[in-house]
Design a protein that fits this description.
This protein has two helices and no strands. It is mostly helical. The chain has one domain.
């Protein structure tokens, strides 16, 4: 019986020692897993924060481009408006002067010549003004879309680089 008690005692002590070793191993593995989890969460948060900062910077650049585009469009509209106002005023003045000149005509022949000259001059001026306004409008549209085109190009390049 003493041998049996001794065997049981040895077995219990060996089992306790093995359990202690396994507990320490489990504890070490749990600490390793926990540390890896904390590290993964921290890295994930850092990447998310960096991505959000990059998105905010990108959004600010887009907003700046829209503001620049709107400013360019406004300047173009102001230029067109000034040209139209100037043309309208000049056209009115020429029409009044022509009417006064025609009112003083001494013959039908002179009246027809004055009317013909006025119509020819008015048509040439009109075509010239339309050409100027078209150039202004074209430049305005080009200037308005330039900042937006630059942002689209930058975005496309960023996506292509990310692939």
């Amino acid at each position: 019986m003493a041998d049996t008690a001794e065997t049981i005692t040895k077995t219990v002590e060996q089992t306790k020692a093995a359990a202690k070793v396994q507990t320490e191993q489990f504890k070490a593995q749990a600490e390793t897993v926990q540390a890896a989890g904390v590290k993964a969460v921290r890295e994930g948060m850092e990447k998310t924060t960096a991505s959000l900062n990059e998105l905010a910077a990108h959004s600010k650049s887009n907003l700046d481009a829209l503001t620049a585009s709107a400013t360019a469009a406004q300047k173009g509209a102001e230029a067109l408006s000034a040209q139209a106002l100037s043309y309208g005023k000049t056209s009115w003045e020429h029409s009044v002067a022509a009417a006064q000149s025609m009112a003083q005509a001494r013959s039908i022949q002179e009246l027809i010549e004055l009317q013909t000259n006025f119509a020819k001059s008015a048509m040439e001026t009109h075509l010239s003004e339309v050409t100027k306004m078209t150039e202004t409008l074209t430049a305005s549209v080009k200037d308005s879309f330039k900042p937006i085109n630059e942002r689209v190009t930058a975005t496309v390049e960023k996506f292509q680089a990310a692939r």
